[in-house]
Design a protein that fits this description.
Radius of gyration: 23 Å
Strand content: 5-15%
Number of helices: 20
Structural class: alpha/beta
Largest sheet: 9 strands, mixed
Oligomer: single chain
Length: 418
Amino acid sequence: MNIDAIINVLANVAFTIERKRVSLDRAFTLVCRRVKCSTKEFSREDIYNIAHKFISNYYFVKYIVEKIKNGKYSYRLLARAFLFLFSEEIGIPRHAKLRKTIKRDLPGLERIVQEISDPWITLSYPRWFYEKLEKVLNREEVNKLLNAMNRRTIWLRINTLKIDIDKALKRLEYEGVVCEIDKSIPIIVKVLKSPKPVRNLKLVREGAIIIQDKASVLTVLALKPEPNMLIYDFAAAPGIKTSLIMQLTENRARVIAFDLSLRRLINMRKLLKKYGVDIDRVDIALTDSKLVSLTRKADIALVDAPCSSSGAIPKDPAIKLLLRSEKIVSKMSEIQKGLCMNATKYSDTVVYATCSVFPDEGEDVVQYIIHRSDFKVVDPRIPAMKGYRVYSDIWSKVCRTYPHIDDCEGFFIARLER
């Protein structure tokens, strides 16, 4: 087995994430253009899964290596330490060469692992990340939440614009996919087992099934979209939520979709066509949603705001590396306040959502809005848990998804009405 080839991929992926500030998927793609990302024993998909595990445990491994090497490390040494520590989990035996290298370069590694007691290290998160959550949850709850975010649950949405639910379930079964229908949202299923990556399923390639997390679906359900409604989507790309709005209204809503990125809007248009959306009923506009000025009020506005993406760590563990300090969270919170305040000018109902586990990108923003406008927060009446209890004035009227409870990403969802 060519362990060095795997070490090379892992080291390059970590380097690319930190230097280029990109997602795991993007980093892996870039690396595989330059180096071979498969071996005789492991396919490209296998090595991607190993890389996912490595990045998810990056802070844990880095702490150990830095402790032994007095703060110094190399990406290749981190990769070797990871393969040694997680060999059984990833199915790579501890070959003599690897054991010899670890003994020489990282003496006492296993002893140090046993001595670690700090939960942010064992769970592999930045310390500030852990301590910030301790302000709104007790330690046991924080541990459960962060542990759940170290693994991903894949959800699929059945796109009824292209296929009915029963037919989709039969075809999934035919393709060998074992899934569980959500009891409260019958158009989504949780994948328990798949013979291939779900993105390669024929139904997904056809657009009849869409990979969409349960929390993301709940955001659109909070809108309660109806036929003939005019809906403003203030941060629309890549268009997954817009497509669900059209699905729920059987292509009879009218959506005006805003985004800052021309490339993302072009891709959004292609995606909507693939998903069977009536493009004539979706207008796409390249603009800054914080500043856009509109002449007509919408029935409802969706602000699925840009955020720290801290709740999306199950999908992309590189987010742990990208969130170097809580300054990023504060910056995103200010952007969200601007987006929401502008949205309140153009609709009497605003649904605000973020993929974040931090209150700065949730409860704090809602308090900011209701204290500076005539909007009030109302229960969105969706099958989700409530917010953080320390926000006694609003916690029972806003919603959060908790990865350790809901088996999905960590979202915040609020409905504001004038």
